[in-house]
Amino acid sequence: MSKTYSLDDNSVIVVIGSGAGGGTLSNALARQGIDVVCLEAGRRLEMADIINDEAEMFGKLTWLDERIGQGDALAGFPTWTCKTVGGTTMHWTAACPRLQAHEMQARTSYGNVENTSLVDWPFPLSELDPYYDRAENMMGVTGTHNIERLPGNNNYLVLEAGARKVGYKDIDTNNMAINSAPRDGRPGCQQLGFCSSGCAVAAKWSTLYTEISKAELTGHFELRPECMAVKLNTNKHGRVSSVLYLDRQGKLQEQKARLVCVAGNVVETTRLLLNSKTSDSPAGLANSSGELGRNYMRHALAAVVGLMPGEVHLYKGAQFAGVVKDETRHDSSRGFVGGFQITTVPFTPEFFARNLPMRKWGKKFASVLDNYRNFAALMIMGEDPPQADNRITLHPTKKDHYGLPVPVVTYNNHPNTIAMINYGVQAGHKIYAALGAKEIYDLVNIFPGTHNMGTARIGNDPKTSVCNPWGQSHDINNLFISDGSFFPTVGCENPTLTIVAMTLRQADYLVGQLKQDAV
Amino acid sequence: MKQLATRRLFLMTGTKSLIAFTGLLALPGLSHSAILLSQSPEHVLRSLIRLLEDLFPHKDLSKQVYIDAGKMMLRSLSQSSNDDRLLQEGIAQLDAMAHDGDWSALTEQQRLSILENIQDTTFFSVLRNTAVQSIYRDPRVWARVGYGGNALQQGGYLTRGFNDIDWLPE
Fold first, then answer.
1. Which residue among A194, A350, A360 places its CB closest to the CB of B3?
2. CA A472 to CA B131: how far, in whole Å?
């Protein structure tokens, strides 16, 4: 049963955000009897609200409040994140690779790369492995814990055949948090193909109908949807004492708190902390290092589209259930550090009509689109090295409808990223050319940041990092960061599994700290 | 899957391009009111439908698709006086480049050659962006190009060919 807590109950833990980090952490704490109030800016959808219509679901799921992009970030839409209960676990495609050991020691593995702020994680992969195990089991990740992999769709079968022809070997339908058979009260995948519009049958793990629902059954959890956190208050001891938020009527409320965990996805997490500055912390809360908002990372992203000699119908089936892993290694002879994944990706006719790099009207254009059924597509997704000046800041004067300063996302591709994308796109060409593709198109510099990481990196040194290795603020010990903001480096893997593993680890630490009354 | 982000970008650039387009009208001998007076709603719709056919000439696609898309665009553009004006002025611009003042009545070759000349204008790109949405979200176009759309309604692709490819090498 769901509980309610009073605004002046200062014994509760307030979690801000209900996605991969916030949803996971909420349930991990509530099931141990710890009282949690979760503030979520977005609306709570019912299963019947999730339909197979990209345009309508985009409106229901997406964070559309103004954000300004600068540099290589798209000006009007720099990041593609969600504003709904479940956060980006509604929109995600559910690919769950683990970070690799060498990626968690990026500075050691890659050496000194000019104009980066590469570091090693403050602990090795072996420290995270048990939590990866727990996360995979909790989410039902295929290819782990004896969970069968998903069958490959046509787009995968094309990728696999082409990849084998050019000599790649490490190819499968990926580790997916999508049920291949019924599990944990959710059905198996029906191969609908609308993964990124929200899974209408709940075969894909999303906190909306897993961690959040389970937390509500504990009797130690209250979800408050449509409640937008605007400021953290601190007391004279320098501890966080309450959270100011706007409720669904737009009324300002103050929830007292014993401890606060921020999981708003990097842009909102940074904005909240910067906006909570005080005379003691003029640069923003938890920002004595000056590192808050810096080292914003995405992934290197590009797509390659092949017009194949036969029909593919790339839209049918689980969207990202297909990966070639041979290029995820570090091998600087390729002309860049770090690696990249090659995955399947589907696009709609409208997307091709907008983005195929050719003259976008006329007979030739229409005849290319007439062959939509013959298109195959793959995505290049690679490691993005941290750079101090890729960062989230607040606009000095512009305010949004909440009255909050508009976030500014400044992002520029590192030369390493450009070299990697060029190499990756060529690799994609070879795959489709090996199967006799008639035309091959590249889609570069058109994607907003869907994987948003960094800005509150973990580390041992309070001078160069925002959080300790558990995501606890160096400056304020009852303030935790519980989303992708804590990544010091990102590897080339989709971030959600790591966010979930890290928040499970954080929950264990937090419970221990609470028991000892240390926070 | 990410086309919607682009749609939002389009909406945001729309206002900017309007300003740019207004500049385009500063052509000698073309007074603003003279252009607008020549536009009847029937003429605008006829020109718009012709434009859609020239932009997206899909083989074996029913004329009705273009007519419906034209009507839909006209409805949505007329809801904003800025967009409405952009459309009226754009068509007036096309007509001004036609010898007898009616672009839509020209031969295909003549029409296309005028479109070539204006394809870099903001009017053209704004119009094209709106048109893409009208045409490529139409299930009749999906059926023509082979996109299945709403899988849930049809019971998912699990039993409807998600892995039925038969031309790959062994």
1. A350
2. 50
